[in-house]
Amino acid sequence: MKTLLICPAIRRAVPQLAEDGPLAAAPILGECIVSHWIEHLAALGASRVQVVAADRAEQVRAVLGDGARWGVQLEVIAANVEPTVAEAAVRYRPADEPGWLPAPHDIVLMNHLPGCPNLPLFESYTSWFAALLAWMPRALTPARVRVSEVRPGIWVGRRAHISPTAKLIAPCWIGDQVFVEPGAIVGPGAIVEDRSVVDGEARVAHSWIGPDTFVGPMTSVATSLAWGSNLTNWRSDSSLRVPDPFLLCSLARPPTAPAIEPLDHGAGASARAAGAPLNWIPTWPAPTPGVPESTPPS
Amino acid sequence: MKIENLGQCLSISDIPELTAVNSAHFRDEVHAVLPGSPSVIEIDLSQTRFVDSSGLGALFALYRATAQRNGVVLRLLNPRPEIQQLLELTQMQQLFEIVQR
Fold first, then answer.
1. Interchain CB contact of B94 with A (< 8 Å)
2. Of A24, A69, A230, A272, whose CB is crowded by the most CB atoms within 10 A?
């Protein structure tokens, strides 16, 4: 069965979510919206999925791969502008062509998460956060083995590190490879995405912490979306780029610098003589200015 | 920066930013007039567009200095939303009376 997904392009109400990537690839409880949709549609019987992306299609393609992960044939189509459902039907679905999922799953505009049409994602930061909270109990599908519900309303990634003195208050979601340090309080209504760190005595409540984000010691993130050094209060729509990395910053490494041409002696020369590829030599990017030294390795 | 001594009230205003560049100056100027024993210190942040940890440190130093004087009220006036966010992130809003006029 075929289906077609339309990625949201520009949504002026939530610019921070699309700063570093397309909205379709914005992280939601360890996955991105388009991944959630493909998983849902594959469960409904879709075997061929076309994804129309008008914003940074190459990044969408990189996130999704060829679809083998979901057992579907996947094609990402770059478009100049985001089509409506009606326009997409005309352009991509020949009239009366059989083999499509029944409506409304034949052509889907991903403005909401599967099964939550009444919870629009991109109308405001408030609506984004409300949709994520509502999605929390549904996010744990059988295919997701890296997160488990350790107590009612508390989901924790299997490779997360929670200090014994940290406190988790339901509902909350702690993603994979997250560190919650001593004395930290996470919840209620908190989502900490993958590879983030909530440092000692920090508090996160009614907030979303994006992936690869460091929340500094003794800070308090409330009614906010924090991603990297960006802090947006979803209630007031006020945004701030936090100037001091020990309060809030990104842990994402910068793109790896081009590999240095190996010296033609020693181990390199021996490996080359043996016919071994030399690109295995790891390159280590320069440390990100301001990233705390105590940050555990991800 | 403008500092006005209005009897019992010390008013500090016209602070475009409070950062590593000017926080020491801010601290010195305000501490110089503290011996006048004001009962209220009002810091008008309506013109303040940027505050970093040095600026927060200067505010905290002022808080500590006034905490030793019983009954002195320290008030932040009209901080912009982003400055208020920073105060909330650092939990410093618990130390000050924040007033929007």
1. no
2. A24
Contacts of B89 in chain A (CB under 8 A): 219-221, 231, 242, 247-248
Q: Name which of A209, A282, A289 is nearest A254 in CA terms.
A: A289
A194 vs A175: CA distance, rounded Å: 4
Number of helices followed by number of strands (H, E) in chain A: 5, 23
CB contacts < 8 A, A to B, total 37
What pLDDT does residue A256 have? Answer: 60
Rounded to a whole number of angstroms, the distance between the first and last alpha carbons of chain A is: 39
Distance CA(B53)–CA(B23), nearest Å, equals 10
Write down the pLDDT at residue B37: 77
Q: Do A219 and B82 touch (CB under 8 A)?
A: no
Domain A2-128, CATH among 3.40.630.30, 3.30.565.10, 3.90.550.10, 2.40.128.20: 3.90.550.10
User: What is the helix (H) or strand (E) element at residue B64, kind and residue range?
Assistant: helix B53-67
- Out of A236, A239, A248, the one facing B89 most closely (by C-beta) is A248
Altogether, the residues listed in chain A come to a count of 298
- What ipTM, to 2 d.p.? 0.90
Distance between B52 CA and the closest CA of chain A, angstroms:
6
CATH class of the region A147-250:
mainly beta
Q: What CATH architecture applies to the domain B2-99?
A: 2-Layer Sandwich (3.30)
- pLDDT tens readout for residues A23-65: 999 999 999 999 999 999 999 999 999 999 999 999 999 999 9
CA A36 to CA A139: how far, in whole Å?
8
